[in-house]
């Protein structure tokens, strides 16, 4: 005979042995054991259940409730069948898996190396991000006006080219070989730049040709000509940008998703965000330390070259550490098994993505959030960096300020991440989504006001011991710090949460559309606006009033989209919760055991499943149905 064990229901064999079910000899007393007990009444157990086990029941007023999981021991069941038909059940709650601080050792072997990798990657990224701005903004014959042209005409094409090459390499290389193939060129370039390209930049850069082009084209083309003038610095700028998008987004998160389970990700991924800001704080201090080295150097020594060599040495060492950690995890940590049946992410071209965006109001509003952030932060950031160069023309002074800026950003973001959970719980998605544009608008108004009306308020600012320029630099720094901390702690979680209530097709296609169209548009949109303003009005300073007006329009559109999306998001969440509640009511199974002589009846859902039992022990008997009284629940 066979017994089929299911979750919440015990289906008896067609010809069972005679048993009398009463309160003393019922399932509760027969299963109320701690380790291994015999399940009488069955000659064998179905071993197809495997490690999933079945639920132990506790009898309370005739209704059996789940208590804890039990596992069928197939070997014990087979042996018991030969002894008279007793299967065995083992308690799987007594798990002897080694743990540390409540976390399994196997999980820690994955999470700790991933945390170290993430720390090293973001430590490098902060150093590279601060250094790239110093190189291209403070270089002779260049200014902050070069950044919009760099982002549009150099960075974007190289990013597209890299992704095409990466896709082709992924088809011919293993995952480990692909990781090293991408990482090693980054490490080699940054090492070579610090010790070869920068010391010999005067030899490599076509300064005379750039001077002739600038004289013939006019000062409005200072940005495009500067790309040619300092091409090696621009290459460093692009490689630093690619480190953030390629090594962080593609390599690290791809590897993390490969070796972690969903439950581990939900528990530990938020901690990576906190660790990232710790890396930001330490790397900011490192930049500040190397920037101040020039104070102890003798006359005639290029202090910035010395600082650059020290920082690039750290970048190379961190890069090698990342490769070492990656090798260790792949060698000593077993990978989780994955289901082979996964829905592939739809591949959408640019035109298909645009059509899909236009057709869905929900996705349109979500796309507006992404594009508006990219444009807004670029409009303010580039203007701020132009003022930063005017205040700190020396590369070391500029770099030291950026080190302090990165440290302050890390502290602010860390604090905002601790507050973000409270904001979501108390005020909800809508308020959290509006905080980032509100912060950016308020600080942006203060920043542009100081630039436009610095003269009339100069006496008041002078009483604080500052010039209008220095005040604008500090207000712009605060604007960037609070905007980025709000983005990391609130804007990004809000954006990802907005996908949750969508149906699977809209979720996948909407995310694909935003990845293809909106992210690049947001990053290059502000740069294109600034290029137009520079070429039209002659310089970034002359176009500042118009940039402030554009910022106001974009942020207001951002707030409108957030309000609209909040209404739709709330409605979809309520609809999803209602559907889930209805499904739970429709699928609920309530096992009911009643005792009428020797008859056991089990009620499931709206029907009754009854197996009658005759009083004759080993003889065959036909099944009979018996009515049971429905209990009040």
TrEMBL record:
<dbReference type="Pfam" id="PF03219">
    <property type="entry name" value="TLC"/>
</dbReference>
<keyword id="KW-0813">Transport</keyword>
<dbReference type="GO" id="GO:0005471">
    <property type="term" value="F:ATP:ADP antiporter activity"/>
</dbReference>
<feature type="transmembrane region" description="Helical">
    <location>
        <begin position="366"/>
        <end position="384"/>
    </location>
</feature>
<feature type="transmembrane region" description="Helical">
    <location>
        <begin position="460"/>
        <end position="482"/>
    </location>
</feature>
<keyword id="KW-0547">Nucleotide-binding</keyword>
<feature type="region of interest" description="Disordered">
    <location>
        <begin position="605"/>
        <end position="633"/>
    </location>
</feature>
<feature type="transmembrane region" description="Helical">
    <location>
        <begin position="308"/>
        <end position="329"/>
    </location>
</feature>
<dbReference type="GO" id="GO:0005524">
    <property type="term" value="F:ATP binding"/>
</dbReference>
<feature type="transmembrane region" description="Helical">
    <location>
        <begin position="148"/>
        <end position="166"/>
    </location>
</feature>
<keyword id="KW-0472">Membrane</keyword>
<feature type="transmembrane region" description="Helical">
    <location>
        <begin position="405"/>
        <end position="423"/>
    </location>
</feature>
<feature type="transmembrane region" description="Helical">
    <location>
        <begin position="546"/>
        <end position="565"/>
    </location>
</feature>
<dbReference type="GO" id="GO:0031969">
    <property type="term" value="C:chloroplast membrane"/>
</dbReference>
<keyword id="KW-0812">Transmembrane</keyword>
<protein>
    <recommendedName>
        <fullName>ADP,ATP carrier protein</fullName>
    </recommendedName>
</protein>
<comment type="similarity">
    <text>Belongs to the ADP/ATP translocase tlc family.</text>
</comment>
<keyword id="KW-1133">Transmembrane helix</keyword>
<dbReference type="InterPro" id="IPR004667">
    <property type="entry name" value="ADP_ATP_car_bac_type"/>
</dbReference>
<feature type="transmembrane region" description="Helical">
    <location>
        <begin position="435"/>
        <end position="453"/>
    </location>
</feature>
<feature type="transmembrane region" description="Helical">
    <location>
        <begin position="268"/>
        <end position="287"/>
    </location>
</feature>
<keyword id="KW-0934">Plastid</keyword>
<keyword id="KW-0150">Chloroplast</keyword>
<feature type="compositionally biased region" description="Low complexity">
    <location>
        <begin position="611"/>
        <end position="633"/>
    </location>
</feature>
<feature type="transmembrane region" description="Helical">
    <location>
        <begin position="111"/>
        <end position="128"/>
    </location>
</feature>
<feature type="transmembrane region" description="Helical">
    <location>
        <begin position="238"/>
        <end position="256"/>
    </location>
</feature>
<keyword id="KW-0067">ATP-binding</keyword>
<feature type="transmembrane region" description="Helical">
    <location>
        <begin position="178"/>
        <end position="201"/>
    </location>
</feature>
